[in-house]
Amino acid sequence: MDAVFWIVLGVLLAVAEIFTTTLFLIMFAAGAFAAAGAAALGAPVALQALVFAVVSALSVALVRPVIKRHAMPALESGDQPFGVEAIEGSSAMVLEPVDAERGLVKIDGELWTARSYDATRSYAVGERVQVIKVRGATALVWQDEISTPGGLPEGKR
């Protein structure tokens, strides 16, 4: 029965990590799964708690810094960007009018919901824009610096 408690706790912590993305709670989930293993081997509750504490502490102290160092954004590490990082800075074609509330653009053959980076600006169908930032599945766009005088907003040049 103790093993079930630790497994449920580990799953709950892992699910909570999905929402926080801090690489902190997942270390405690690892500790809970280690304690579940100790419980399955018949260890007393005090030893299970000790295993949980030791594995969690070692994970936070030793594993988390290594993961965070290797999870550095590609632009900081000098590697070729991929995923959302590769989309930021790309040029896009407006397919449906884009403003602060709605819009649709085509980026490298893919359709993306879009919003204007500057809430006071709007872009008509057929205009070229540049992706400044991606939030979730929405591209925040600005006038394309190549096709429009003025270029990128201040701080993004």
From TrEMBL:
Residues 85-142 form the NfeD-like C-terminal domain. The chain crosses the membrane at residues 44-63. Keywords: Membrane, Transmembrane, Transmembrane helix. It is found in: Membrane. It comes from the Bacteria. InterPro entries: Membrane_assoc_protease (IPR052165), NA-bd_OB-fold (IPR012340), NfeD-like_C (IPR002810). Its main location: membrane. Gene3D superfamilies: Nucleic acid-binding proteins. It is a multi-pass membrane protein. Pfam families: NfeD. This is NfeD family protein. It comes from Micromonospora fulviviridis. The lineage of its organism: Bacteria, Bacillati, Actinomycetota, Actinomycetes, Micromonosporales.
